[in-house]
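User: Please run a holo structure prediction.
Assistant: Happy to. Please share the sequence and the ligand.
User: Here you go; the ligand is C2E.
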Amino acid sequence: AKRDGRGCSRLYGDSLGRSAWRRRSVEVQLSRALEEREFELHYQAIVGGLTGALAGFEVLLRWSPPNGATMRPDEFIPIAEDMGIMPVLGGWILETACREASTWPRPLTVSVNVSPTQLREANFVEQVRAVLGATGLDAHRLELEITETAMIEDRARTLATLQRLREMGVLIALDDFGTGYSSLSFLQDFPLTRIKIDRSFVSALETSRKAAAIVRDVAGLARNLGLSVTAEGVETQAQLKRLVEEGCSEIQGYFIGRPEPREIMAARLGRAPRG
Ligand code: C2E
Ligand code: CA
Ligand code: CA
Ligand code: CA
């Protein structure tokens, strides 16, 4: 039998259909990807709005399947989430990121995205504690980025989890603020330390008076609540200037730097790449 992609697609084409077959193929590849070491972490700089000084890095997952086709995390993470492998994959991400950050100069923080199922793992708090213990990273140098979806799905339990993490000193950022199910009650009820204003508002800043008004009000609200505010997806000098004026305390985006492999991130920090 033919063993190339087309052969397979003919074989399964009838019962599953094209997109379902593609999904199944991604699932099979994903299930092996972790042990085959096909994942890599990239690091995107976050800087202080007023000073431009490096504040830390957000960790972003990259996957290079052996077939050469790279796939965006937006595409494969939801599949990994459905397959139930995000807790394991997320555990690897957390540990790798914290180990890396433990070698950085002291005030720098590492921001790690946490998927909804990972956050709902019964022992998530203990996992974080164990990783901090094993890597020696100070809890207040770890920021977990949570989405509104995660907060909605099991509100009471998520709240308890986040409170325990905060008690440990871990920072909690609300990611993609303004998209999805944004609710001011999240800001009231959840023990957040930061809001990340979604790129969609940042890119509309110069053309939409409404977007500008929203950014200003969200930044003001965050400030009054004692939260830090990162603007995401900042691509131009003009956006940066405007966002700082509107009160964003941190800036992240291609204008500052793209997500980069660890060797390049390490070079930015003025250190020799490891191994
Ligand atoms: P996110 O957490 O909102 O990450 C920001 C995304 O915006 C990243 O896309 C980043 O590369 C991109 N970005 C940053 N600056 C700019 C900019 O100036 N312009 C534009 N156009 N894009 C910019 P990426 O790396 O493709 O990740 C997409 C999403 O996948 C993330 O959105 C996050 O939801 C998810 N993701 C990525 N890595 C992880 C991970 O390690 N764990 C989990 N659970 N989710 C992850
Ligand atoms: Ca994020
Ligand atoms: Ca985001
Ligand atoms: Ca996003």
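The beta strands are 39-48, 54-63, 109-113, 142-146, 171-177, 194-197, 228-231, 250-252, 260-261.
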